[in-house]
């Protein structure tokens, strides 16, 4: 499962945002089911940022949001994200040089 939280941050607020994002990413990384995470910034529009995390499954992500350290260190940052869908289930993937793997989704279509 992939979670994409997008942000628009004024240049004068970038340092504080980065510190807050580092704390959030650290807290999320300690949760069971966390696979990886990245803080990214747009090359074309540097006020646009994204916090990307990957999780074993939706349950792992939702349980992580209930952890005390995540509530303290990540929830304030996540509340600043753009109001749009952020959680996505993986339906297909391909490793470098590998074959396409199609995955059945959890949602009924």
UniProtKB/TrEMBL annotation:
SUPFAM superfamilies the record matches: Dimeric alpha+beta barrel
Show where the ABM domain sits.
2-64
Q: Which InterPro entries match?
A: ABM_dom, Dimeric_a/b-barrel
Pfam families for this protein: ABM
User: What name appears for this protein in its UniProt entry?
Assistant: ABM domain-containing protein
């Amino acid at each position: 499962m992939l979670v994409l939280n997008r942000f628009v941050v004024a240049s004068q607020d970038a340092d504080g945002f980065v510190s807050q994002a580092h704390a959030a990413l650290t807290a999320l990384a300690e949760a069971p089911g966390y696979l990886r995470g990245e803080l990214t910034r747009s090359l074309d529009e540097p006020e646009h940022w994204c916090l990307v995390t990957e999780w074993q499954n939706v349950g792992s992500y939702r349980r992580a949001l209930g952890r005390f350290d995540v509530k303290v260190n990540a929830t304030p940052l996540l509340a600043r994200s753009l109001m749009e869908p952020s959680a996505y289930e993986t339906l297909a993937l391909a490793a470098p040089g590998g074959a396409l793997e199609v995955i059945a989704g959890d949602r009924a279509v």
